[in-house]
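B., you asked whether I could sanity-check this one before it goes into the benchmark set. Here's the sequence:
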Amino acid sequence: MRTIYLAGGCFWGMQKFIDQFDGVTETEVGYANGPDRAPSYQEVCGSSGHAETVRIVYDPARISLTRLLTYYFMVIDPLSVNRQGGDSGIQYRTGVYYTDESQLPEIAAVCRAEEEKAGAKLAVEVKPLQNFFPAEEYHQKYLDKNPGGYCHIPGSFFTMAQEEK
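And here's what the prediction gave me:
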């Protein structure tokens, strides 16, 4: 199993989106790459410096990191700084955070391709993971618990894996 951390705006929708893909074995929402102490959601919303992030555990024999990142770029605006959809603030920045440097060539290749496609420099951070603090339990699988909850990702994207089969 491998792990990657993706910040893509509000973590509720990113978790629901990523959960659908075969090979993703576990996800957890939390707060990453801010000060070295666990924040509350209220502190994150008050610009603590953490990014809303999804920890993704995946089986590389079933889904590649390239494939995961391709899906990720489908549901973010990679040129937007500290904003996705109607959400704005430093906690909504985009980022790919890794703990294994062997993932960096694959991450860099996908980002280069996305930059060429966009014709501009991406606003997506690519950095080593500094820290990750799990979010409060009520945030875990939030859109499964609250199907009417807000998300910048269109609902049709949450059934994409079924449609690909």
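One thing to flag: Residues 2-160 form a domain with the Peptide Methionine Sulfoxide Reductase; Chain A fold (CATH 3.30.1060.10). Otherwise nothing jumped out at me.
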